[in-house]
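Pilot study result, target chain (378 residues):
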Amino acid sequence: MKTNIRRGVAVVATVAAMAGASCGLAGTASAATITPESPLTGKVSRVAGTDRIDTALKAATQIFGASPTTPHVYITRDSDFADALSAGPLAFMNKGAILVNPTATLDLRVQTQLQNWAAAGVQVTIVGGSNAISDNVAAAIITAVGATPGTGVAKAPGTASVVRLQGTDRYATSLAVAEKVAPVVDGTGKSNGVTGDAFLATGRDFADALTAGAAAAHDGNSPVILTDGSTLSADAQAYIAARTANSGVVASTNTSYAVGGAAAAALPTAVSLAGADRYATSALVASKFWAPLSTDTNTISVGIASGETFADAVIGANVIAQTSPDGPLLLTNPTSLSAATQNYLNTNRQAVKQAFIFGGTSTITFDVSVQADKTLVI
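Predicted structure:
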């Protein structure tokens, strides 16, 4: 399949959808997605499907509802976390959803949903190179939305498109996404004077990047940039320097946040948000960006994801960012609510309107939801 690659974007296909067509979903978002698990407070619910692919699809219906218009969908591989976590702020910016899929074959459930959205002018972005989502899957996606290979990206409602956003590896891909979230130059090479911060997290593990994603979306115009452990690429350093320098348009007030110890070591000049472990780090980030007053009531939502496995968690940051009100994504031990997360919930229990646990009971046990429910009792 022929593609045209420029600045990390491969244009794969476009198609004009039939005028007047509508897309249908199997059920309402709430019925398809959320299971209440909160007998004491009514605040705790679980977002889960039969597996990680199904969980992402159900979360997408929560975001889009039954009749989306020009939905934006970001497809990443299901067996790794990096590209999905990088994509989070871009998905939020476009009010889009993240779907996960195997590298080699288009999952039938993903195919069916894309077909349902085709008439609505779905805008599909494959995040990652062909080693993440193969060209065969890209070709199947083109077929699913009824497209033919093309060289332009149509933006008008009712026109479906498929593009690939990629770098040479996960770190370069995260930077390619960052340049879409907050480009430092416009088409003429002049500074955009973009305001917004940058969040760094290691790309060797998922936990810190997962935590960073919700904060980046909340912060606005703020990408997640992956570090190779304690190493930051020269291109990423240049990007961050450009965002934190005076632009000639506006004086920069941008801040770089390093989430986790590895990222802090990669960029020592960044504001460090690193706790004793991943659970403490997630609570620290939550307290930094969501610190409600003691008198606040129902002003934040909270996501709770496993700190041990990324399977159902990678879509969590985008979902909680698009929930009203939004809030942090906290991490927990799969079988017992982690102390740092419990402390945050206890401190802010009056402000928490709702809490969502991402993943089935094999990912986070029912005991955790019980503990969260008890902690939120006012």
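One observation from the pilot: The chain has a mean pLDDT of 86. A full batch analysis is planned for the follow-on phase.
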